[in-house]
Design goal:
The protein has two helices and five strands; from the N terminus they run E-E-E-H-E-E-H. By secondary structure, the chain is of the alpha+beta class. Strand 4 and strand 5 form a beta hairpin. It is globular, with a radius of gyration of 13 Å. InterPro entries: DUF167, YggU-like_sf.
């Protein structure tokens, strides 16, 4: 994937072997970093949990899976994802998603 100069990066913190796949929303880690908290039911073996996380985020945000790329943290709970596409449009879409979640609806799930 060739991201271009303004492709957004997203830091996610995930838990594996959850009862169901779910995007928990934004959270803060002990070091003060803001992350997207994600839970997937797949085990952390042979890339299964990473693939499940990308599939979940693509479905939640209505993006093609090919637009999400794991660029750091392949074997760590803290992941960095590259989101390919128009950064301004993605920013608006993700802000809408976050606003809907804060109102209590569960868009994309």
């Amino acid at each position: 994937m060739s991201p271009g100069p303004f492709a957004p990066l997203l830091t996610a913190f995930w838990s594996t072997c959850a009862s169901r796949d779910r995007v928990e929303g934004l959270g803060e880690l002990d070091d003060g970093a803001t992350v997207l908290k994600v839970r997937v039911s797949a085990p952390p073996e042979n890339g299964k949990a990473n693939a499940a996380m990308i599939k979940l985020l693509a479905r939640t945000w209505r993006l093609p899976k090919s637009s999400l790329s794991l660029v750091a943290g392949q074997t760590n709970r803290r992941k960095t994802l590259l989101i390919a596409g128009d950064a301004a449009a993605l920013g608006r879409d993700l802000a809408s998603w976050a606003a809907a979640r804060s109102r209590g609806s569960d868009p994309g799930e």
